Amino acid sequence: MERNYQKFPETENGNVLWQLTQKLGVLPDEILVDFAIIFPTYENALKFGMFLLKFGYRVQVNNLEDFPDVDKNGYMGEVIVGIFMEINEPSLTQAENWLAENSKSLNGKNDGWGFLGD
């Protein structure tokens, strides 16, 4: 299969989607995507989780102290937010940018995304 650079541009998300297409064959048009955002404190993660709940998203907040095997790099809180969306590069990038912008005041940092089956 030859890569379609319109659909899978040379960006971080475009490259990941291309690799997933190679692995899985065909990607669904829409799917629940889980985005991870990490915070320096668990309290900041809780605040951001509450903010996301107001939008009706599925939210999980983790205290990274509860995961001794995880390399925390100074981050103690994590939010996993599930967003049902189109699975394409522009939509993923837009969601990441929105999460980054809205978590900035709490020192949040995007830490990747995934979906069931990837």
Share of helix, binned: 25-40%
State the strand order across the main sheet. Answer: 2-3-1-4
Count the E strands: 4
Structural class assignment: alpha+beta
Instruction: Tell me the distance between the termini.
Output: 19 Å
Q: What average pLDDT do the residues reach? A: 92
Q: Supply the number of structural domains.
A: 1
Q: Runs with pLDDT <50, length 5+? A: none
Radius of gyration: 15 Å
Pfam families: RraB
Protein name: Protein of uncharacterized function (DUF1260)
Organism: Moraxella equi
Domain Regulator of ribonuclease activity B: 11-114
Please, could you describe this protein's structure?
This protein has 118 residues and is an alpha+beta fold. It has one domain: 2-Layer Sandwich (Alpha-Beta Plaits). 34% of the residues lie in helices and 27% in strands. The protein contains three helices and four strands. The chain has helices at residues 12-24, 42-53, 89-103, and strands at residues 30-39, 58-63, 77-86, 109-114. It has a four-stranded antiparallel beta sheet with strand order 2-3-1-4, covered by helices on one side. The chain is elongated. The model has no long low-confidence stretch (mean pLDDT 92).
